[in-house]
Specification:
4-stranded antiparallel β-sheet, binds zinc ion, about 20% strand, elongated, about 450 residues
């Protein structure tokens, strides 16, 4: 095996392990749509990113919704007649119905039964259940555990609080050359569930850290949101209604740590540049990856793509939520997400952003017949049957660069990875065979000013 290849594989293994370790640190925390678990999670992310924490008071109206009371929990259990904890929140935070109101008392198994949730089809797993907007209490346990409970009296305790407080979300803004923004959003409201919430948080944090290290040399500005699902996105949109005009593209990241093939769910508009960029990257990655049409259910793309906003925001997943049996159960644990999968997901996100960052229009400066590439050292020196992909990329770029085809258009039409097409365009530009066309004059002018500023700052 060649040296470059093996060192690259080692690097990927290293990245994967780091990402998995990051998820493992967040795994034990009891998160919900409000409360200390959510704050603790955001503070941990804050150690890696310039993340601003926002608090929005209980009762605040956000469009058609109201910020709920803040939920916090210290302990919960069901004890049998001998005083033994047969269901124990300290062992697994999924045991409590999220947002349970406090409860304390003794009751028979039949009185307790309506408050117990199990999954008979997977008798060893504990389900994840919530009751955010209707006051209720309950426990979740494995079906096996339920069947093992004898009739008799049980001591039941949920030491939780529902109080006036606030909803917390985290926001990290990384200014680029242009004020046009790319939004990356993920939910941070699930307790010990790895693929569904931690994989998104983990990859988004790593992606943001990577962009932050470029110190503003990127084309777009980036806004990363870590928020409670649904109510968090609605809250952010309600408080930032005007500035959503700057969001050119966006990506919701969720369920991207498992071994499943990639799925990209298109934005409501369906034909935007991010939809095309994601489809391009996934098509070249594997034949199993799929592009899905938009639907008004799923994650926070529902809010970003609601008709009033209609933003170009898609959703990147591996296995689609709800389609894998581990979804919303204790089996969505740290073994279910894999270091390799997390590393590859990060790579896919970077590739999609690479397309958006570099997709531009060019014009061939020698459009009358092919320029002589060999004379410039841009063609193979001896004639033969096979045209290498890099040469092919140069020919495609020259042929389609008429000011109307973007590099992504060319990559799609040529079935050549965008990165190769970009390399070809750069090389041809260096050789004065190509020039960039200012498709959006204002945006280009803004970028050029930022370029000059970066150059003088350095
Ligand atoms: Zn979920």
């Amino acid at each position: 095996m060649n040296h470059n290849c093996s060192s690259r594989e080692e690097a990927t293994v290293g990245v994967g392990r780091e990402l998995h370790d990051f998820a493992a640190r967040l795994y034990p925390i009891c998160r919900s749509i409000t409360g200390e678990g959510l704050r603790q999670t955001l503070r941990f992310i804050q150690e890696h990113l310039p993340l601003q924490l926002h608090e929005v008071t209980t009762g605040t109206q956000v469009f058609d919704w109201t910020i709920p009371k803040e939920w916090n929990i210290r302990d919960a259990f069901i004890k049998d007649s001998t005083g033994r904890r047969v269901v124990d929140f300290q062992k697994c935070n999924l045991h409590v119905l999220s947002y349970s109101s406090p409860v304390s008392g003794k009751m028979s198994l039949s009185e307790l039964r309506p408050h117990l949730h199990t999954i008979p089809a997977h008798p060893e797993w504990i389900p994840y259940r919530t009751s955010y907007y209707k006051e209720d209490w309950g426990f979740c346990l494995s079906h096996e555990q339920l069947l093992s409970l004898p009739e008799g009296e049980y001591e039941v305790r949920i030491d939780s609080q529902l109080t006036n407080g606030s909803l917390t979300y985290g926001e990290c803004f990384l200014a680029g050359k242009s004020s046009d923004e790319i939004l990356v959003s993920c939910h941070a409201c699930h307790p010990s569930l790895a693929n569904d919430n931690l994989s998104g948080l983990t990859v988004a944090t790593a992606l943001a850290a990577e962009i932050a290290s470029r110190k503003g040399s990127h084309r777009y500005s980036y806004r990363f949101l870590f928020l409670p699902g649904t109510i968090g996105a609605i809250t952010w949109l309600a408080r930032n209604r005007e500035s959503t005009e700057r969001i050119k593209y966006g990506l919701v990241l969720t369920c991207i740590g498992d071994k499943g093939a990639f799925h990209y769910k298109k934005s409501r508009r369906g034909d935007t540049e991010i939809d095309r960029a994601a489809a391009h990257v996934l098509a070249l990655l594997s034949r199993d990856s799929q592009v899905l049409e938009f639907s008004p259910y799923g994650y926070d793309e529902r809010q970003y793509c609601s008709p009033g906003f209609n933003l170009a925001v898609g959703c990147l997943m591996r296995s689609v939520w709800g389609s894998f049996p581990e979804y919303h159960t204790s089996a969505d644990n740290l073994d279910f997400i894999k270091p390799d999968s997390l590393a590859q997901s990060l790579e896919v996100c970077s590739r999609i952003l690479e397309v958006l960052e570099n997709n531009r229009l060019y014009r061939n400066l020698q459009p009358y017949c092919e320029p002589q590439l060999g004379r410039r050292g841009l063609y193979r020196s001896t004639g033969g049957e096979f045209i290498a992909e890099e040469i092919s990329a140069r020919l495609w770029v020259l042929n389609l660069s008429d000011g109307n085809h973007s590099l992504l258009d060319i990559a799609d039409r040529a079935h050549i990875p965008f990165r190769r097409i970009l390399e070809a365009a750069r090389l041809l530009e260096e050789n004065q065979l190509l020039e960039r066309v200012s498709e959006h004059r204002m945006a280009v002018a803004e970028e050029e000013i930022a370029d000059k500023k970066l150059a003088t700052d350095q």
